[in-house]
Amino acid sequence: MAFPFQRQEPIRLAVPARTLSLEETPDHRRLLATVPTPPPRGGEPGAYALRPSEPPEQWCGSVADAARAVRRGELRKAVLARRIQMECDADIQPSVVLRRLAHTFPSAYLFSAFGLVGASPELLLAKRGRMVESRALAGTIRRGGDAESDLRLAAWLQDSDKNQEEHRVLREAVLDALAPSTTWIEANERPETLKLANVQHLMTRVRAELKADHPPFLQLAAMLHPTPAVCGWPRDKAYEVIERLEGWDRGLYGGALGWVDAEGNGSLCVTIRCAEIHGRNATMYVGNGIVADSDPKEELAETRAKLGAILPALIAP
C-alpha cells in the first residue's frame, strides 16, 4: 500500500501474489535473491542521458523564495524537490535496480511498487501490537573521502544551527502527533548521526506504547504523513509554498509505502531516494528542507549528493 504525497489523493492498495518473511530470511539481500528476475528485453542499458526538469538556477531561485517566506514568519520550514529525467537505450529493470540498492544500502527500507523503486533510510511508522516506532531524518551532509574527513563532516552537521533547526521541527511534529495516543513515548534528546553510503543524516529514534483504545495503524500513519522531513511545517502552509514554487504533482514521491495486515500491524517507510521507472525512462526525485538561513547553492549541492543513492543503481553495468 502507498500514501501519495498529497493527503487528499486516495491511498493505493495492492495484494501480493507471494509474500516472503524477513523473520525467515533476516538479510533482505538473500531474500531478494529468491525472487526471479525476468530477462531484460533488448539487453542492459549501455548509454543514458540526464536532464533536470527545472534548470538548476530556477530551482535555486525557488529555494531563496522559500527561505524568505520562513524569515518573514510565514512558516518554519518548506521542503522543495527536484526531478531529474533519465533516458536509456534499453529498458530499465526494476528488479535489477532493487538488487543494486540492496547491496549498497543493506539497512535501508527497500521498495518496488506502483512503478516506484527506491531505498529509503526513513521509517514513517511501524507497529507491532501496541508498540510503535518511527525514525525521523532531517539534516544532511555528504560522506568524507576518509575516516578523518568523515568525522569532521559529521561534527559539522551536529554543530550546524541550520540543520539542527530543520531536525527540531521534524522531531517536535512526530512527538506531538503520537503522544496523545500513547501511554509512554521516548526519543533521544539530541539527534544521532546516521551514516549511509553517500550521505550522513541527523536522526531521532522514537518508540512508544499505544493506549488500549489507540487509533488504527493507518490512522496513526495519516497523522504523521507527510512529515516536515518531506513537506515542511506548518503542513498546510508548506503545501501552499510547494504548490506555488514547484508546480508539478509529486505523486508517490514524498509519500509512504509499505504493508499492513489484518491484525492491524504494519510498516511504512517514507518514499525518498527513489525513481519512477517506465521502460527506458526514469524520473529521479530528491528534496531538501529549507529554513531561514538556507543557502541555495549549498542546497543544490546537497541534492546532488542525495542523487548518489539512486543514480548508480540505475546506470551500473
Overview of the structural elements:
The chain is an alpha+beta fold. The protein has one domain: Anthranilate synthase. Helix content is 32%, strand content 30%. It has eight helices and 15 strands. It has helices spanning 28-33, 56-71, 94-104, 147-159, 161-178, 217-224, 235-245, 296-315; strands spanning 2-3, 48-52, 77-88, 109-113, 116-120, 123-128, 131-142, 182-187, 192-195, 199-210, 232-233, 256-260, 266-270, 274-278, 281-290. Strands 1, 6, 7, 8, 9, 10, 12 and 13 form an eight-stranded antiparallel beta sheet that branches. Strands 2, 3, 4, 5, 11, 14 and 15 form a seven-stranded antiparallel beta sheet that branches. The mean pLDDT is 92.
Features:
Anthranilate synthase; 317 residues; seven-stranded antiparallel beta sheet; 15 strands; eight-stranded antiparallel beta sheet; alpha+beta; globular
